[in-house]
Specification:
The chain is of the alpha/beta class. Helices cover 44% and strands 19% of the residues. It starts with a strand and ends in a 15-residue tail after the last helix. The model has no long low-confidence stretch (mean pLDDT 97). Bound molecules: 5'-O-[(R)-(carboxyoxy)(hydroxy)phosphoryl]adenosine and zinc ion (ZN).
């Protein structure tokens, strides 16, 4: 069964063809970094307009790359939310139009659940139950996953998401957008122990994350020592110290979630899961604690439509359908 996935929730226009929810036949991602870089972050209205320009060529590109035509597609899946409304409606309108004109079944999928599905596109997919840590620009969520449609939220961020913290700190450090990649590059040769930054914990809610205090601590450092931005070594050290604090917050709670649930497998996905320091720390932790780690390749961690098609396949097989009145949603 061939599913065409469509993703436009933020600043990536993406389409992909996936066979039987497992084999990626094509995956096309048009980023908008060039467009938003000058503003230091995603401008929703501009993102929507760029999606409108890109959506049909990107879909055609995914069909061409898979060497099929739209007639060969058995069903369509589109990200319904959460995300930027103006961006989501472009993908939704395209998906509805194609499904209607081609008489194909359509299903809407949840963006965060789709991120978890990236694990099923790897060579060694996890088995249920497992713990999933979704770390993206808008969310830092820990789930216990019991089935393709059964997941329980164990913990989340009470303020900023991990990716948001990367983006905000990158802005504070005048590194520009996209923040995560810039911080990682700068941190690579920095000393992660140079600055002592907070790792907030909430005693009654050990699986709850908090990143806004960390961001404020970096802002405070920079206010007290503006010279940091002029000294390459200090800048690298601050980036490395910040990154280390985020990595420790994520790995410690993921470890705790495994202990609390008794699960022996951990899936880590979403844009921040592309971070090399986090990946190394997770690999070390898995080796030391003896759990199985599933870390999708980088292209499946950041936003893409293959994960949307993979989840869409399961939903379509379960008989779910989105009719033409189905709408997008921004939160949830
Ligand atoms: O999942 P994603 O592509 O989009 C959302 O659903 O939000 O995640 C984007 C987030 C951004 O905040 C970006 O800064 C962060 O992921 N990110 C990274 C890296 N690559 C992307 N953060 C740290 N290190 C990276 N290498
Ligand atoms: Zn995402």
């Amino acid at each position: 069964m061939l599913v065409l996935g469509i993703e436009t929730s933020c600043d990536e226009t993406a389409a992909a063809v996936v066979a039987d929810g497992r084999v990626v036949l094509s995956s096309v991602v048009a980023t908008q970094f060039d467009l938003h870089a000058q503003y230091g972050g995603v401008v929703p209205e501009l993102a929507a307009r760029r999606h409108l320009e890109n959506i049909l060529p990107v879909i055609q590109g995914a069909l061409d790359q898979a060497k099929i035509s739209i007639n060969d597609v058995d069903g369509l899946a589109v990200t319904q939310g959460p995300g930027l409304i103006g961006a989501l409606v472009i993908g939704m309108a395209a998906a509805k139009a194609l499904a209607f004109a081609q008489h194909k079944p359509l299903v809407g999928v949840h963006h965060l659940q789709a991120h978890i599905m990236a694990a099923f596109l790897t060579e060694a997919p996890p088995e249920f139950p497992f713990v999933a840590l979704v770390v993206s620009g808008g969310h830092t969520n820990l789930y216990k996953v019991d089935g393709f449609t059964e997941m329980t939220l164990l913990g989340r961020s009470r303020d900023d998401a991990a990716g948001e913290a990367f983006d905000k700190v990158a802005k504070l450090m005048e590194l520009g957008y996209p923040g995560g990649v810039k911080i990682e590059a700068l941190a690579a040769s920095g000393n992660p122990a140079a600055y002592s930054l907070p790792r907030p914990r909430i005693r009654e809610e050990p699986l709850t994350f908090s990143f806004s205090g960390l961001k404020t601590a970096v802002a405070h450092q920079l206010k007290q020592h503006p010279e940091i931005l002029l000294a390459e070594t200090a800048k690298r050290d601050l980036a490395a110290s910040f990154q280390a604090a985020v990595v420790e917050s994520l790995t410690s709670r993921a470890g705790l979630a495994l202990m609390e649930t008794g699960c022996t497998q951990l899936v880590v996905c979403g844009g921040v899961a592309a971070n090399g320091a986090l990946r190394r720390a997770l690999n070390n932790q898995a080796r030391a604690a003896g759990f199985q780690l599933c870390l999708p390749p980088l292209a499946l961690c950041t936003d893409n439509a293959a994960m949307v098609a993979a989840l869409g396949y399961r939903r379509l097989m379960a008989g779910e359908r989105l009719d033409l009145t189905g709408d997008v949603f921004s939160r949830g």
